[in-house]
Design brief:
The protein is α/β, with parallel strands linked by helices. The protein has one domain: Metal-dependent hydrolases (TIM Barrel). Helix content is 46%, strand content 10%. The protein contains 15 helices and 9 strands. The strands form 2 sheets. Strands 4-5-6-7-8-9 form a 6-stranded parallel sheet. The protein has a 3-stranded parallel sheet with strand order 1-2-3. Strand 5, helix 7 and strand 6 form a beta-alpha-beta unit. Helix 5 runs parallel beside helix 6.
Length: 342
Amino acid sequence: MKRIAVEEHFSTEEHAEQFRLILTKEYPLREVVEAEEQFHAEVRWLPASKHSGSNAKTLSGKILEVGEERIKEMEEDGIDMQVLSLISPGVQVFDPATGTSLARRVNDQLHRIVQKYPRKFAGLAALAPQDPRGAADELERAVKELGMKGASINSHTRGEYLDDRKYRVIFERAERLGVPIYIHPRMPSPGMLKPYLTYPMLATAMNGFAAEVSLHALRLILSGLFDEHPGVKIILGHLGEGLPFWLWRLDNRWLKMPQGMIIKKRPSQYIKDNFFITTAGNFSVSAFLCAYLELGADRILFAVDSPLESNREAVQFMEGLPISDGDKEKVCHVNAERLFKL
């Protein structure tokens, strides 16, 4: 069975070096960087030395290596293609000018990778929402000139969420171009981070990632984005960041307290109409079946979250699911081919 994994991460040497400048306090506009403890936690994959991550067997090496070594591992584990996106927090921690220019260079490099290995890789553009108009323009350039299949945004940008009207231009452009936006997790925004810091591990994939992105998704729904732009498509990882479990309760509360929530449909309907979810980094059969029963096979995409998670484990998980072969085909490749026009 063909498998297209749609949340697979990479970085570039230049991108990694910009992070190192922040870690070593050499970044010239350091005052624009978010809370230092948050940033350090989000780039734990990055070695302090430029050279210590060059070994492709290290986590840093695997993130930086997008070529023969990665393809060999993919083929050994049964992955036919990866849709690549820049590792979190992307370019969103930098000042607007740096973020926008760095996104452009990252996208150019990703384009060269895809050109070299077109049967193995496709790309999602990196964007700098801190410059909303620049992000929209870069999305259009990346799609029209570089062949990118959409964009990846790492949730909040310096504590701000995409439901703010100033970001609407990004969604307008995505709708016009007919491409999805993947909202990838990161640690909770500074405003909601403090309660996590007593037990810092909670702020990451254990709990904070899902809390952050599910909140972000619901803010987008309640903002009226999808009434204004019904063609916008959003992708969420990790089997929907918990949202499939909450659909009944979301609707129940909305029906009882509609004041101030002026949207045309029930919250669950927007999730069913405008969202796709992926299996990235959540290989739970019971969680999958919850999402499958709520959303159906047409709304679920296969993903690994590599190299942070295991290709082999993800493939074995998919093989063991108690669903029909036809639905497995949809999840493993058909839905991705349709959504990304592969």
